[in-house]
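queue> holo job accepted (iron/sulfur cluster)
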Amino acid sequence: MTRENKKIIAFCCAESAYRAADRAGRLRIRYPDNVRVIRIPCAGRVSVLHILKAFEKGAAGVLVMGCQEGACRHLTGNIRAKERVKYAKDLLKEVGINGQRVKMVNFSPDMAQKFAREIEEMAEKIKEE
Amino acid sequence: MIIAERKPLEEIRNMLAGYKRILVVGCGTCVTICWAGGEKEVGILSSQLRLASSKDGNELSVMEAVVERQCEKEMVLEELGDKVQEVEAILSMGCGAGVQTMAELFEEKPIFPALNTTFIGMPEKEGLWLEMCGACGDCFLDRTGGICPVVRCAKGLLNGPCGGTRKGGKCEIDPEKDCAWVLIYRRLEKQGRLALMRKYYEPKNYRVVKRPGKIEALEA
Ligand code: SF4
Ligand code: SF4
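queue> job finished
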């Protein structure tokens, strides 16, 4: 598979990561274009099944991006997301997919650089294998 | 309720080797509550099976279904309808009773258990289930303050505790587990029924339930 069709799915919390992505766009920060950003109301909305389905449909990497710990708009959504990502890693390992292909990242809305960096890192990771 | 655990993926995949179209059937009752075979677990296992087989370069079509109570024939038939005809094998995520109910209904299809059925128990807190009853057929709970010594005492003693109770009321075989007889003592103490502890109980008749168990209502 070429890099172009090795997709990354980034589930972005509307309160933090999505705004960081938006800001990255406005600041014209470059990041790989094989990422598909999906806006969600809270990282806690992402279930293990969403993550598995993304891989089933051909994603090579999944990022779950939520608020900083302690700053979740919905109190514990990001903590739940962290647990689910951990669980998803185990489920993926069981089927022989590297657990590093799914990652939880915490943001505040101004972290545009970090957003670009995380996408870049995941793009590198999926290129390696 | 019945408590069960999912088998490792590898074991499940070995059972299914060679089949190209399967139906994964969950149960919406006991095994949903113990997170082993409900709708969510059906989704996760089906997804894992698809991912694993496409990684190996094999085609595997996985259909999903959940029956409200897999141990009731009517419910199974109503929910599954013609779906069974479309597949080569069925993977049940019900307890052993569910697996066998379906095996009886769809005799022409191989049926495989995705779970290990472990015990009759209750949810203690989120994500923790404890064994409560061994279905011995001759309930003893009237004498023990509602705490079953048959399964909650590691040795199944009817005249406990044994000499091995640890400080703090834990069991000698596992410091994480409560000594059932300490629990029984405290419960009876609360109820002012400690005199029951002084009684000696004859060995229980464990042959009350003739296997295979069968109960018929007087009027049906
Ligand atoms: S098949 Fe029946 S006994 Fe078994 S888990 Fe489902 S409802 Fe419970
Ligand atoms: S005494 Fe027998 S029937 Fe009663 S709870 Fe214990 S195992 Fe179950």
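queue> Residues B 133-136, 139-141, 148, 150-151 surround iron/sulfur cluster (ligand 2) (CB under 6 Å).
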